[in-house]
Structure to design on (643 residues):
């Protein structure tokens, strides 16, 4: 079995985590390791749906890991983070945490301070800026305050000061930033030499607001950002900014796992510097508007492709919702997942989750281990699609890991209830092939898939409830048809017989229990119910495709049978089987009473517009005659025939 490194991450669809995933994958492959990625679409529990998303970390296969890398800054739920790391420690798995230090783990940290200082130093040394404003984040926030102090520190190195009035608080997003800029630009103050922003989102808003007031960047004022977000690639002017070095961080994280495995680990952390991007907004690179047209083309491609994916997801929801069984659910998932072109894909559902379809049980093996077996709803490997089956693990999952070196696990759940997981293969070359969007679309896909499965489950439950209500409508508690159910079924069967070229007879056996009042009065009504159920069970034992058994009242029963055989002989067989079954009950029940019945039989060839009630009445009359002579004959039979 291939040894692996694990990666726990939330929101892998975002560009920082996705870049780090690609770097970890490449480095793990260099060492010959497989990579098992566990991704949640939620960072913390703020709803029942998020609780179901975070349950993916309960599926971590610690036993095959030589190390676990946790993007601890993305998993913001402390209980979940603690559960992941505790699980690794209990099994002796070396753990690396990224971007947020966790005690007892090896920590790979980004040197935010040095990166921000480099930006401030650049605008002072390279561009001669002396009057500098800072667009800070949230007042009192540690990240924000540290960057403000970094700016003060660097400015002090060059004999400059940062007055409090030059600090604005944009709270890390656009609307508060726009409000701060409106206030600044309408106050009659002179523009500073530079506005240094604590993230790219605020920097882009600052540029936009300056443009609204007739100023240009960088001719009138230099603007810088920080973080290197994806949106910045399509902004004119491109921002001078600093970006996390995800490639180096990924390499360091994997290197730490390998060093620990080989007994050569020395430090307990690695500090990673940012990559500095010097471009339009500080004047280091002239603005080329051809970049804008290229960016628009890319964004248009993204929009067009996303529209196609969204359409597929709507079709998936509709198709799965209307699926009648698990095979059809599987087929529809395959059908509307084509646009993702995964090298490997499977969905594993917990065996205890059986309400998704009434046909679930036919996929279960009698030798299955209930604790480990899962229903593999879908599996596709290199173009081969496999319909639903049950197994301890998917058939081709090890082949996929060996061939591609990575498995990406995502949660399957209905709100907070986890029902399993999905697995796919997304390689870095796929991720980079179209705007870094493969992982982004996987997150969208899994949310739609979970919604589709929830609809399928709800529909299945509704079908079962409706079937149970219908059964209550046409059956009584003994399992036999009531009057309503009897007439519905007999009319259906007569219609089928009339469509057949053979001659059919309808045989009616009227069954009436003997001595029910005596049993009730002597032994209690509960024993009377036992006696009635014994008759119902005896009737059910001879219920075949051509028989209809019903209870018309307290101790009144009807057997109807359609036959192509001699009707009198057929009726005798039915009655002999019924009385024989009751004899066996009486011999073994240990009850102080015998359950006995009186019988009457009538039959008629099936014709159009035949009156079933007339035949029932004839059988009843003969049953009552037999009942009157019951003292002389235990199971006497009166016969009435009319052809």
């Amino acid at each position: 079995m291939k040894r692996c490194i694990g990666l726990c991450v939330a929101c892998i669809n975002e560009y920082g985590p996705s870049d780090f995933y690609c770097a970890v994958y490449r480095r793990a492959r260099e060492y010959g390791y497989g990579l098992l990625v566990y991704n949640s679409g939620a960072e913390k529990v703020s709803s029942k749906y998020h609780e179901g998303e975070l349950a993916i970390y309960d599926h971590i296969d610690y036993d095959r890991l030589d190390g676990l890398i946790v993007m601890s800054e993305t998993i913001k739920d402390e209980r979940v983070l603690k559960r992941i790391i505790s699980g690794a420690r209990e099994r002796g798995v070396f753990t690396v945490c990224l971007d947020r230090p966790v005690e007892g783990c090896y920590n790979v940290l980004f040197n935010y301070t040095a990166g921000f200082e480099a930006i401030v130093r650049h605008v002072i040394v390279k561009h001669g800026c002396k009057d500098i404003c800072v667009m800070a984040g949230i007042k009192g926030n540690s990240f924000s305050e540290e960057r403000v102090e970094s700016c003060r520190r660097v400015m002090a190195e060059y004999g400059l000061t940062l007055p409090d009035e030059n600090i604005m608080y944009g709270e890390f997003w656009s609307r508060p930033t726009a409000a701060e800029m409106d206030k600044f630009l309408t106050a009659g103050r002179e523009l500073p030499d530079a506005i240094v922003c604590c993230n790219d989102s605020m920097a882009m808003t600052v540029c936009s607001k300056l443009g609204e007031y007739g100023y240009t960047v960088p001719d009138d004022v230099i603007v810088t950002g920080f973080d290197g977000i994806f949106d910045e690639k399509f902004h004119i002017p491109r921002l001078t900014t600093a970006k996390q070095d995800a490639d180096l961080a990924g390499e360091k994280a994997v290197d730490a796992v390998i060093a620990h495995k080989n007994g050569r680990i020395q430090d307990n952390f690695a500090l990673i510097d940012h990559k500095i991007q010097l471009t339009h907004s500080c004047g280091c690179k002239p603005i080329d508007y051809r970049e804008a047209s290229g960016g628009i083309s890319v964004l248009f491609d993204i929009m067009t492709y996303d529209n196609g994916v969204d359409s597929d997801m709507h079709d998936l929801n509709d198709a799965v919702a209307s699926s009648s069984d698990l095979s059809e659910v599987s087929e529809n998932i395959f059908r509307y997942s084509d646009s993702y072109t995964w090298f490997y894909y499977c969905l594993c559902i917990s065996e205890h989750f059986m309400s998704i379809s009434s046909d679930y049980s036919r996929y279960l093996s009698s030798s299955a281990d209930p604790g480990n077996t899962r229903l593999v709803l879908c599996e596709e490997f290199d173009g081969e699609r496999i319909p639903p089956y049950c197994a301890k693990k998917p058939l081709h999952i090890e082949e996929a890991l060996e061939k591609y070196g990575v498995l990406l696990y995502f949660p399957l759940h209905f709100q907070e209830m986890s029902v399993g997981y999905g697995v796919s293969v997304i390689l870095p070359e796929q991720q980079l092939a179209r705007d870094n969007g493969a992982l982004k679309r996987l997150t969208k896909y899994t949310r739609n898939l979970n919604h589709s499965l929830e609809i399928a489950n709800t529909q299945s439950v509704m079908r079962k409830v409706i079937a149970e209500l219908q059964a209550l409508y046409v059956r009584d508690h003994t399992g036999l048809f009531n009057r309503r159910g009897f007439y519905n079924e007999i009319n259906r069967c007569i219609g089928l017989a009339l469509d057949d070229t053979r001659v059919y007879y309808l045989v009616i056996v009227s069954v009436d229990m003997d001595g029910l009042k005596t049993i009730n009065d002597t032994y209690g009504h509960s024993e009377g119910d036992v006696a009635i159920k014994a008759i119902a069970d005896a009737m059910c034992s001879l219920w075949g495709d051509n028989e209809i058994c019903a209870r018309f009242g307290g101790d009144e029963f009807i057997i109807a049978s359609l036959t192509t055989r001699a009707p009198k002989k057929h009726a005798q067989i039915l009655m002999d089987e019924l009385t024989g079954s009751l004899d066996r009950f009486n011999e073994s029940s240990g009850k102080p009473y015998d359950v006995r019945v009186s019988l009457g039989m009538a039959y008629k060839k099936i014709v159009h517009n035949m009156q079933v009630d007339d035949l029932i009445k004839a059988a009843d009359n003969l049953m009552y005659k037999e009942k009157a002579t019951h003292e002389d004959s235990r199971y006497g039979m009166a016969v009435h025939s009319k052809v």
About this structure: The two ends are 76 Å apart (CA to CA). Residues 438-474 form the longest helix (37 residues). Residues 112-245+276-287 form a domain with the Rossmann fold fold (CATH 3.40.50.2300).
